[in-house]
Amino acid sequence: MSVLDLARPELRAMQPYSSARMEASGGAILLNANESAWAPAGEAGRGCNRYPDPQPAALLRALAALYGVREEQLLVGRGSDEAIDLLVRAFCRAGRDAIAIQPPTFGMYSVCARIQDAGIVEVPLAADFTVDADALLAALTPAVKLVFVCTPNNPTGQPVPRATIERLARELAGRALLVVDEAYVEFADGGSVAGLIDTYDNLAVLRTLSKAWALAGARIGTLLAHAEVIALLRKIIPPYPLPLPCVTAALEGLSAQGQAEAAEHIRIVRAERARMTPALAALPGVREVLPSQANFLAVRFDDAGAAYQRLFAAGIVVRDVRRYPNLGDALRITIGTPAENARVLDVLNGDRA
User: Fold this and answer.
1) Selection from 294, 302, 333 nearest residue 316 by Cα
2) What radius of gyration, in Å, describes the C-alpha atoms of the chain?
């Protein structure tokens, strides 16, 4: 059985849009795409009178090397959000198919499903916010085509063991595509499961340059998956998803200097996370700091609303996650610079200076 048997048959048979840039490349005089012959004003717009490559070769090479996959196993889009949306549209028929999620988790999985009119099977995380694989597998119906697992999980920070990922991929074979969201994996101890793609054709992995690579504003996200899945999604992704300035920023970020800077920032975040965890736990009014392998900490308070307002009044904005299941007393605090983290501790300790 091919993993594409899980996808919408009408998309598998669809003739994709063929853009001018896809049909022909090279040449000195470009008159095939109805572009302006003149470059726009300003240095930032250099080259922007031309449509960008749909999947820029240099960026594909850099990301394939970074993630340890082949270029045909990689799709680049506008953040992980676009990949999530493409997956739901490709595998879920409106009003018939469904996705499975484990709340509390990243909200875009359910948003994309609702936009597609796909069902949502919710299997809550265990009391300690770990994935209950037995409960998840037992809850799946034949309608479920995508199972999303976020590791480390957002907004709680716990990783999912590699053995659990392998078990899910194995037992979902022929039933559903397992989508592992690794947006925060650079900050974790366990590493990526991207190396399992060659073993399980029903495994897909989401990666992003937004977090550890400091490129949230560039919106560069990547889906790693079996080549057949990538080829299908390339049929339905918009023809020019990656703005040229964003591609330039990504390539600079992935340069030798950019990788060295990212490694140093990751080291600082991990050290600060280890420092902030006991420091926050010792503050008055803090009930618990959830263990985290991400670049944030979920913190339970006696009065989370008052803590949020105290921080906001001091010019510090954190994420109020009280609307999430089992987090009705919690705020999510991103690990900032050492000075920013020190200020958070001072404010929560009653210092308003």
Assistant:
1) 333
2) 22
Residue 227: strand, helix, or coil: helix
List the structure tokens of 96. 């018939």
61-75 pLDDT, tens digit each? 999 999 999 999 999
- pLDDT tens sequence across 76-98: 999 999 999 999 999 999 999 99
Best CA proximity match to 79, nearest among 202, 237, 228, 193: 237
Say which CATH superfamily domain 258-348 falls into.
Answer: Aspartate Aminotransferase, domain 1 (3.90.1150.10)
Per the structure block, which two tokens stand in for 123?
């299997």
Provide the 8-state DSSP code for 57. H
- Give the strand pairing for 177-181 and 286-289: unpaired
User: What angle separates helix 108-115 from helix 79-91, to the nearest 10 degrees?
Assistant: 40
Residue 16 has pLDDT above 60, yes or no: yes
- Fold classification of 3-19+54-254 is Aspartate Aminotransferase; domain 2 (3.40.640)
What does the domain layout of the chain look like in residue ranges?
3-19+54-254, 258-348
Q: Report the predicted TM-score, pTM, of the whole model to 2 decimal places.
A: 0.95
